[in-house]
Amino acid sequence: ESDTASEISFQFNKHKKTPSIGSHSSDMASVSSVSGSVLSVYSGDFGSVDAQGTVEFALDYDEKNREFQIHVSQCKDLAVVDEKKGRSDPYVKTYLLPDKARMGKRKTSVKKRTVNPIYNEVLRYKIEKMVLLIQKLNLSVWHNDPLGRNSFLGEIEIDLASWDWSNRKLNWYTLKPRSLSAINGVDHRGVMNLSIKYVPPGSLGPKNPPSGEVHIWVKDVKDLLQLRPSGVDSFVKCYVLPDTSKKSHQKTRVIKRDTNPVFNHTIVYDGFHTEDLKDACVELTVWDHEKLTNHFLGGIRLGLGTGLSYGISVDWMDSTQEEVAFWQEMMSAANEWIEGLLPLRSL
């Protein structure tokens, strides 16, 4: 069924309802830091004000330094967020889409108490021109809130493939409201074709298996983000959360230059008691492999999505309805392969 089979143990102290906070705190912190590196473009407080006003900026590509430059000049007539005080504290934020996780965000300084901020700042991305031309620039304006509930003030999106690169002048653009699909975080990253099954302890005979097993068969992935003209060099990484130790970590081989890679890789985790299925989460993430660093492409989390693991509130127990239904079907059909086609998402 697969070219590679991996089997590792997944052990919790079954005498305790919750794992030791000390033993798992570093693991949970590492998961949190990964999640933080791929925060959605669409995070923030929406709908509090209507988008209005304009933004002035210019685009340029420095061939010598292989650098994309966004000269953010100023904004005019922005919406007022705090009507009582008649103030907004705006800043400008940019992403390159669809690969926002890889390139990251850039943002200007915050200008306080003004709806006509002047920035005169340059936001820079080190990126090859050929890669840049398959991206879109998302430039948005936000009100900075000290408590973190930043308000969206408007955005502009530019397809860089059709941009006139001889145009280096500052131009004014009307800020637009966010579309419904953007608010909902619709972000196509591809789909994963996989099967899973749960084998309860002793279900195949006396003490066979001695502990429960979760089998994960990663078959293939379709429509990955194309980061380079030649395609993408991808692999799949797997953890059973809350365990992020080396014993939990498994990964497939790298499939080169293919946006529709076939992995056909099976992973077996033992040490699973039936009650662990309510509190554990299988995290599968797809990565682009490069020499210096790997870049996140998308992932899925299979679990009940309750927000809790062994009584502890965790941000990674956030499975979508599709992912929850897939996990529940596995739980209710012991020893049977459950097939699924699940969309990859930001985690």
TrEMBL record:
Cellular compartments annotated: Cell membrane
Alphabetically ordered keywords of this record: Cell membrane, Exocytosis, Membrane, Repeat
Record domain C2: where: 51-173, 188-317
CDD domains, per the entry: C2A_SLP-1_2, C2B_SLP_1-2-3-4
GO terms for biological process, alphabetical: exocytosis
Entry annotated with the keyword Ubl conjugation: no
Pfam families: C2
GO MF term list: neurexin family protein binding
A cellular component term, taken from the record's GO annotations: plasma membrane
DNA-binding recorded as keyword: no
Protein name according to UniProt: Synaptotagmin-like protein 2
Upper lineage: Eukaryota, Metazoa, Chordata, Craniata, Vertebrata
